[in-house]
Design brief:
Blueprint (H helix, E strand, L loop, with lengths): L2 E6 L2 E6 L6 H8 L18 E4 L2 E4 L12 E3 L9 H8 L9 H14 L5 H8 L9 H13 L8
Helix pairs in contact: 2-5, 3-4
Length: about 160
């Protein structure tokens, strides 16, 4: 089995990973990072969103082998004092919470790229993340608060 060198949440990891293993499988099954969620497992829902080199990516579609040499950040890597999850909590932007980590990662990427996005930019950036509970207005309110404050939030 090939040995893979991955950088996840700022830590270098060396793992034996088969060529066909997805990043989602490695994160959850090998590293026990359960933030990225398996849901559709075909890149349609966004529950498994992580950051690859500061851009949102579906971990269910990314082969772990293709992530060597890239910076991977999961929701666990943001830390407890990150402003995006805090804004989600203030605005009650999570009901069941299943999609929340993916939503948080997509929002973090948006605000890192554009600290003051328009409402249209927020809707576009978040359109790849589905929420069955329908918290979209609350998610938008959380991001609007951060955008109005000019919160550029670089991932850690």
């Amino acid at each position: 089995m090939p040995r893979r060198h991955l950088t996840i949440n700022g830590r270098a990891e060396t793992l034996d990973v088969p060529d066909h293993a997805t990043l989602l499988e490695v994160l959850r099954d090998r590293l026990h990072l359960a933030g990225a969620k398996p849901a559709c497992e075909r890149g349609e829902c966004g529950a498994c969103t992580v950051l690859l080199d500061d851009r949102p990516a579906y971990a269910c579609l990314a082969l772990a082998a293709a992530c060597e040499g890239r910076r991977i950040v999961t929701v666990e890597g943001l830390g407890d004092d990150h402003p995006v999850p805090a804004a989600f909590a203030r605005h009650d932007a999570a009901q069941c919470g299943y999609c929340t980590p993916g939503q948080v990662m997509a929002a973090t990427a948006l605000l890192a790229a554009d600290p003051a996005p328009s409402d249209d930019a927020i809707v576009r950036a978040m359109s790849g993340n589905l929420c069955r509970c329908g918290t979209y207005p609350r998610i938008k309110a959380a991001l609007r608060e951060l955008a109005d404050a000019g919160h550029g939030v670089p991932p850690r």
